[in-house]
Amino acid sequence: MKKLHKLLLPALITGLLGTAAFAAPQTDVYIGITSAGAKKQPVIAMPAFVAKKDIVSAAQEVHDTLRADILYGRYFEVSEDGPAFEVKNVKDTLSGWSKQRAAYLIGGEMTYEEPHYTIKLYVYDVATQAPVFAKAFKGNRSSLRRLAHIAADQIIQTLTGRRGIADTKIAFSNNSTGHKEIYVVDYDGQNLKKLTNDKSIALLPRWSKDGRIYYTTYRYKNPDIFAIDLKAGKIAPVIIRGGLSLIGGVSPDGKALVFTSSKGPNPSIYIYNLETGEKTQLTNRRSVDGSPSYSPDGKYITFVSNRAGNPQIYVMELATGQTRPLTRTFNWSDSPQWSPTGEWIVFAGRESPYHPFDIFLVDLTGTQLRRLTTDSGSNEDPTWSPDGRFIAFTSNRDGGKRKLYVMDADGSAPHLVADLPGETFTPHWSF
Question: Is the pTM value of this prediction over 0.85?
């Protein structure tokens, strides 16, 4: 076949760039496109946190990080233009913010007792003056940003009933060192870390719900699957010396991997049981089958196959093997990923050889197709945020190099996440 599998192309690129320092963009809040008649968001009052002079800067960092997290979720507007929070006189504070028509008040106080900071956060319903959230968070100086992320998610969950994404990360491959290595970055582009030093080709990181990252690497001169245990700080082989092994995804229960293997005459899709080491072949056709991804309930997979001609998106029911196409007309389709709600599949598609790749959504009937990107350049490698409200992807729209972007799930408000040297490939958002 002219192109064995598009996922292999990044892995075969030999013109890798040299070492350079990474730079994350300035943290901003990105507001999606809303209609003229859209309902106005309720206001959260968030005055400066109470802290002694020697730790004011640390308190401000937590305040600003928490504020940015809440704004990013776009459930609320945030106002700081009002009375200061007074722990001992909450009612007067709430009365003052009631005049500002705030719906909720987030108050905070920070103390320091070497080596730990303690952040006490309070959330009040301004109208009823009733507390709805109160919790203390404790950590050292280096953990303050993460504590703010954790607090933001808990506050969003309390006020909306929906999970937040502030304490999530995006893993990806980048070639800035002269090799493709696996990196991880916070959802907002901060706290970048290099996870591998394989000095070869490492790509396709895939998160499991327990925090591990599985990926494909040429560390042993063969495309094998390894696992990164972030808690233990260890990297270990999972599937090695088995021909081509391209990781697709991890089952929702964390007990299995779905992957592409070329051990047989044609690249096919397999399931690997992490507990027993057993491999189960799912496809066995005279075609190239790849890029598999689990449904949220683990009962289905979506994948790419050229069995009917050009690569198209398919869905398979694992219990029966019943398979059906979701797309039929694309010149090339790639990298399907199931939405957390199970309603949509996002993928990269090219409508003709003369078009660049764009990001699309397709429903499970194959009748609803939505284009999300229309920008210049090629837009590829989509991955969902765990709340289903955002999509990360790679694009060369600015300057020719593939970089990491995030947009709303409707295609609005695309923005650069991390401005890294070299090129970025195959991102995957944590659970």
Answer: yes
